[in-house]
Amino acid sequence: MTRLAPHALRAESLTLGYDGRTVIEKLDLEVPDGRITSIVGPNASGKSTLLRGLARLMRPESGRVTLDGRDIRSYGPKEFARRVAVLPQQPVAPDGVLVAELVARGRHPHRGWFGGRSSGDERVVAEVLEATGTAELADRSVSELSGGQRQRVWIAMALAQRADIVLLDEPTSFLDVSHQLELLDLLTESNREHGTTVVMVLHELNLAARYADHLVVVDGGRIAAAGDPADVMTAETVGAAFGLECVVAEDPVAGSPMIVPIGRFHRSSQLG
Amino acid sequence: MSAGGVVAPSAVPTARVAAVAAEVAAARGRRRRRGASVALVVSLVALAAATASLLLGAAGLGLGDVVAALAGQGSPKADFVILRLRLPRVVAAIIAGGALGLGGALFQTTLRNPLASPDILGVTGGASLAAVGSMLVLGLEGPAVSLAAFAGALIVAAAMWALAWRGGLTGIRFVLIGIGLASIVSGLLGWLMTRAEVREASEALVWMVGGIASIGWEELGTAGAALAVLVVLTALFSPRMPLLALSDDSARSLGLDATRARAVAIVLGVGLVAVATALAGPIAFVALVAAPIARALVGHGQAGLAASALVGTAIVLVADLVAQHALAGLAVPVGIVTGLIGAPYLLWLIARGNRKGTDG
Lengths: 272, 360
Known about the structure:
The complex is a heterodimer of chains A (272) and B (360). Chain A contains ten helices and twelve strands. Chain A is an alpha/beta fold and 272 residues long. In chain A, the strands form three sheets. Chain A has a six-stranded mixed β-sheet, with helices on both faces. Chain A has a four-stranded antiparallel β-sheet with strand order 2-1-4-5, covered by helices on one side. Chain A has a two-stranded antiparallel sheet with strand order 11-12. The mean pLDDT of chain A is 90. Helices cover 74% and strands 0% of the residues of chain B. Chain B is built from 14 helices and no strands. Chain B has helices at 14-55, 63-70, 76-110, 123-136, 143-164, 173-195, 198-208, 217-237, 241-244, 248-253, 258-280, 286-298, 305-325, 334-356. In chain B, helix 4 (123-136) packs across helix 5 (143-164) and helix 8 (217-237) packs antiparallel against helix 11 (258-280). The model of chain B is unreliable at 1-10 and 355-360 (pLDDT under 50). The chains are: A alpha/beta (272), B mainly alpha (360). Chains A and B meet through helix 2, strand 6, helix 4 and helix 6 of A and helix 1 and helix 10 of B.
C-alpha cells in the first residue's frame, strides 16, 4: 500500500556451515515480494541457518544471497539494515534497559555517524509502539515484562527499522498459543498495511500453514518443497521431512491445510 | 525506497501516535534531567573532596592561602604546598579516576558482563607488568613508561581475544580466560619483583598498590593530553555502545559491524586503563565499580559513559582523601582504600550472579 519499491531477495546456490560442517548445501530460494513466507523443517534441518544466511548474519561458504540483484555482502551495514530487518532467535536485552530505549535502537540504520535522533525517529518509534500494543509499556524495563510482551517489544524494534523485508527466527517459541496468534496477527497486519515482506522460521506447522502465503519446507539442508501451503502441506511431504505419519485436514477457520499427527496408538482411528 | 519513511499506517490513528510520541519524549526528558542531576551531585561530591584535599594537611594553610596560591599570588610556602604537592595529587586523582571509570564502562558494556572489567581481566595487570618491567629492567621513565603500559595492556587484551573469541561472545568465557591471564600476569610481576634490587623493588611496590602522591606536572601533562584524546575518540564512538550492549546478531541486524565496533571499544578501553595505570599504578577496583554505581544512581539501564567517568573521578578523589587523612599520621596509597571498598562489591557481585544463575 504505502510501500514504494519491490524487492527481490534470492539465495543462489547458497552453501552455509559452521566450522567446515555444511548445514545448507547449494540451496536456491526466491522470497516472494510483499508476501509472508514461512520456513519450516525438523530440528537441525538448517532452517535457522538459512534465515541467518539471508539475514547476512553468516558468511556463505559458497554461492550468494542477492537483494535486488546485488550480493548482500556488497551493501554497507546500515544500508542493508534499512532494507532488511532481522529478529534473531531469543534476543537478550541488557539489564534495566527501557522499552522505549530499546525500540528507538531500531532507528540506528537511519542515523548518521554521530547518532543524533530526529523528530521523524520519534514518530516512527511512537507508531510501532502503538501498532504492537506496547505504548503503555514504553517506560518499563524490558527485563520485567512477560514473554509475550517482551517479544512484541522486539518486533517493535525490528519494525522501527522501517525495512521492507523483515526476517524472524522462531518469533513464537516460548509463547503460549494465544500470544503466538497475537504475534502472527501483528506481523500479518504489518504485511497488509505496509506490504512488508515477512520471512519467518516457525516450529508450529499449522500456524505456519495458516499465516503463510508461501511455505518452504527445509530438510537436510535442502528445500524439500516450496510453494502455496495448500500444495506443499501434504501428508507425503510432512511424512518425509518430519518422519511423521499424519492426516491433512482443512483448517475449519482459515481453510488452510491442517496437520493432524497420528502417533503409534491411534492408527486405527485414521481409517474409521 | 521507503527507508526512513514516516508514513503513518492507516490502522494507527495519527492523533494517538502523536500522543505516544509526546509521552515517550517526555519520559526521555525526565530521564535526561535525572541523569543531569546525578551528574551534578557526583560532580559536587568530587569538588568537595578536591577542595578538602587542598585544604587539609599539616601545613596549616587556610582557604585564603589556597585561593591565593591557585590565583598565582600565594606565599612561597603556600605555593609549594598547594601547587607542588596537593594540586598535582588532585589532578592525578581526576585523570586516573575518570580514565578508569570510562575504561571500565567500555569493557563491561562491550563484553556484556559486569565482571568483565579491566582489573579483573588482567588488562590493568598487563599495564602494571609492562610499566614495572620497563622501569626495573629497561630503566625507562616518563612517557616511555606510559607507552610500555599501553603495550602491556594491549597484549593482554589481544591474548584474551585470541583465546576467548569463538566467532562471537560466549557467556563467561571471556571473564574466565581474563582471570587466568590476570594470575599469569601477577605471577610474572612477582617474579620481576624478586629479581629486583630491594630499594627499586620497594619503589615499584609502592607504585603497584596505586598511589598518586609525588606526581609531577610533566607526567600530568602527558597523561592529561592522552586522556583528552581518548575521551574525544570515545565520545565519537559512543553512539554505537547501546547496540553493542545487545547481542552480536542484534547489533548486526541494526546495521553495526559488531566485531569491528567491539575491537574499537576494547582498544579505547585499553588506552584509558593504560593512561591511568601509567600515571598512578593499578588503582584497585575503580574500573569495576564505577559503571554499576553510575547505573544504580541513574536508575535505569542506560547510564552513559560520562556518568561512569564522573563516578570514577569522585571515587578516587574521596578514596584519596580517606587514604591521606583517615588514619592520623599514616597516609596509605589510594589503591588500598579503593581495594577495601571494591573487594566486598566484587564478592557481592559474584554471589548475586550465582544466585540468579546468570553469567553475571
